[in-house]
Amino acid sequence: MYTVATGHAYQSTLYTWVGGEAVPYELTFGILLDQLSTLMLVIVSLISFLVHVFSLGYMNDEDEGGLARYYAELGLFSASMLGFVFADNLLMAFMFFELVGLCSYLLIGFWFREAGPPSAAKKAFLVTRFGDYFFLIGVVAVFATFGTAAFGGPGVEESFPHLAELALDGEASVNTFGFAPSTWFTIVGLLVLGGVMGKSAQFPFHTWLPDAMEGPTPVSALIHAATMVAAGVYLVARMYGFYALSPTALGVIAFVGGFTALFAATMGVVKREIKQVLAYSTISQYGYIMLALGGGGYVAGVFHLTTHAVFKALLFLGAGSVIIAMHHNENMWDMGGLKDEMPVTYYAFLSGSLALAGIVPFSGFWSKDEVLFETLIHGLGDSPLLLGAYAMGLLAVFFTGFYTFRMVLLTFHGEPRSDTARDPHGVRWNVKVPLVVLGTLAAVVGVINLTPVHTLVPAVPEFLHDWLFHGPEGLNGEHYEELLHDFAGYTKGYPLGETLTMLASAAVSLGLALAGAGLAVALYRGPEPVEHTDKLGALKTVLFNNYYQDEFQVWLAEGLTARVAGAADTVDVSGIDGVVNFVSSLSLFTGDRLRRVQTGIVSNYAALLTLGLTILLVAFGVMQGWFL
Amino acid sequence: MAVPVQYYLVLSAFVFCVGLFGVLTRRNALLFLMSVELMLNAANINFVAFSYYHGNLTGQVFSLFTMALAAAEVAVGIGIILVLYRNFADVDVTTATTLRW
Question: To the nearest 10°, the Cα dihedral for A278, A282, A283, A284?
Answer without folding.
Answer: 90
